[in-house]
Amino acid sequence: MAAPSGTHLPTPAARWILLTTVLGSSMALLDSTVVNVALPRIGEDLDAPLTALQWTVNAYLLTLASLILLGGSLGDRFGRRRIFVLGVTWFALASLACGLAPTSGVLIAARALQGVGGALLTPGSLALIQASFHPDDRARAVGIWSGFGGIGAAVGPFLGGWLVEGPGWRWVFLLNVPLALICVPVALRHVPESSDERAHGRFDLSGAALGALALALVTYALVEARQGSLAVALTALAGVAAGVAFVYVEHRAADPMLPPSIFGSRQFTAVNLVTLCVYAAFGGFFFLTALQLQVVAGYSPLAAGTAMLPTTALMLLFSARSGALAERIGPRIPLTLGPLLCAAAMLLMLRVGEDAAYPTDVLPALLVMGAGMVTLVAPLTATVLASVDSGRAGLASGINNAAARAAGLVAVAALPLLTGMDDEAYRSAGAFDAAFRRAMPICAAVLVAGAVLAWSTVRRPVPDCAHPECLRHGNVTAPPLEPPRTGHGAP
């Protein structure tokens, strides 16, 4: 069914649509920003080893990264509102299971189910805005949605810390249930249904399954590699084989989930390689820093969550200006300078040890980190979208989003292995601090590699490529998702 001619701002109908999309995206955004803060308490309460904490983060990222492209396609085919509502409902039920989980194994399984719901609702939130609003009001609506998302990202770590210290870590997940109870009825009553009449062909289920399997097997092998068993080695080989099979299937499929032709753009390929470097470092940084502040520096969950606010605040305040600057001077300098600043910030984090003072030890590193992210993130997203034809902007952003999630997934799996953490490391301040001091230079080196790659390969996009409507970023863990467009103002 085609979308209506378009909703205008400001009208009651527009406010209902924005409320729905903000609530839906906030559910996934809050979980991505608050769970790291809760990890030490989760481990203590469930008597979980470090590997279980890794899987608490990675189970969600695994299913989200594997299925997010499929989720967008399902919305285009069967109705964006229908799939969005399904995603919100699924996410809420999985969140309830997380909040009630009696063991770490149940929590990990529920987190994987959460990722499935996230893959259904994340593409849908912005796609609903694109499909529902009149072209003249669409950019403004996206800006409002993005602004509220930024506020949610800023509040997330503080809220997570308060919940962990107060009602308990389970409420980090249970909070999604009342949000869904508001979001779903509003969506069904006030949001028009829309779909893409051009969507056709078969879904690439085999590609999605092989991609998920490859990520799962490689992640498992990295997490469990400390055992050094034959089973782990065979799992790693099976993961590589599944990845090769995924590439083969995508080349042969009539309607592939990840069309190889899109990588015909050297710029697109280069920027996604930069994305892998950057978001691998970010994933490792945010996972380990939340633990370092609590386990080693002795911060409470609330203090650890609040400590991270400067990076998000800087992103929210200045990323739009950074995106505009990159349009004027080209992306090469921002995509080189940004990773270098972030690398410097990670080296500054080596000052954070036992009894670290926030103003002199923690804050300087986070301010430099925020400056690097401001310089980098908006131009990165803009360059991804400008590297392909405007009709493939949604696909390009979905691939970039999946790449960012997958990079974080691999980093959280690999860094404990590379730094010699054992399953009890997070229970010992000395052992964790030693591993953290090995991890930050590794993350910095990966960022420097991304900067070198950007300087060597990234050029100014061609003039007739589309620019993204969403330039303000509040979510520091992944780029925003732009929906498909066939031209300016087209749903």
- The CATH architecture of the largest domain would be Up-down Bundle
Looking at the chains present, what oligomeric state does this protein adopt? Answer: single chain
Distance between the termini: 12 Å
- CATH topology value of the largest domain: Growth Hormone, Chain: A
Membrane topology: Multi-pass membrane protein
Keywords: Antibiotic resistance, Cell membrane, Membrane, Transmembrane, Transmembrane helix, Transport
Protein name: MFS transporter
Main location: membrane
Task: Write up what this structure looks like.
The structure is a single chain. The protein has 491 residues and is mainly alpha-helical. It has 3 domains: 1-194, MFS general substrate transporter like domains (Growth Hormone, Chain: A); 204-256; 261-491, Growth Hormone, Chain: A (Up-down Bundle). The protein has 16 helices and no strands.
